[in-house]
Amino acid sequence: AVQDLQPGDRVACNVFFVWEILRPLLRGATVIAVPDDASYDPAALVDLLAAKRVTETLMTPTLLATILSRYPHITARLPDLRALWLNGEVVSTDLARRAIKALPNTRLLNCYSTCETHEIACGDIRDMIDIESIYCPVGPPLDPAHAYILNESGEEVELGTSGELFIGGSLLAREYINLPDTTAKAFTSDKFDATPGARMY
Known about the structure:
This protein folds into two domains: 10-127, Rossmann fold (3-Layer(aba) Sandwich); 147-200, Luciferase, Domain 3 (Luciferase, domain 3, Roll). The protein is built from seven helices and ten strands. By secondary structure, it is α/β, with parallel strands linked by helices. Helix 4 packs across helix 5 (93-102). Residues 16-176 form the AMP-dependent synthetase/ligase domain.
């Protein structure tokens, strides 16, 4: 499972605070709030993660690259870190290789999400890395029944064909607050779902 939190885990939260804080608390884990100044200072962040014996955190690939440049043997500083979620940017294969080498005992998760849909796809980098590729895939959709790749006519494309990603299902946001026109443009009827009122983004 992507989420294997348990009581005793210590999760450092900052970037997506509302999502990050609820997930560990609902599983009996401890939340460590990362101050904004530490989020923008790689040395301060590593010091905090080490001092609080953090077992899981989330950061952007750019921040991870900066940390690895400063601390190439980071596992010695963060021996308790069991899971690192990467989100917000594309993960390059080069960064993935460096992270795997620097954090051999840490699960490295590459995730793709949007505010409108919550998590879309997430996977373990070690299971998906292709050294011939420039970028790491994000893994399979978390709700494959409601993930569609469509052409310009709104029809599903064949496997291996480019298209635009649309997401449906129960995790969609309801609307953009006080922006009905923007909501109507972004959220459309989901013709692939027989549920009354089903929408996709």
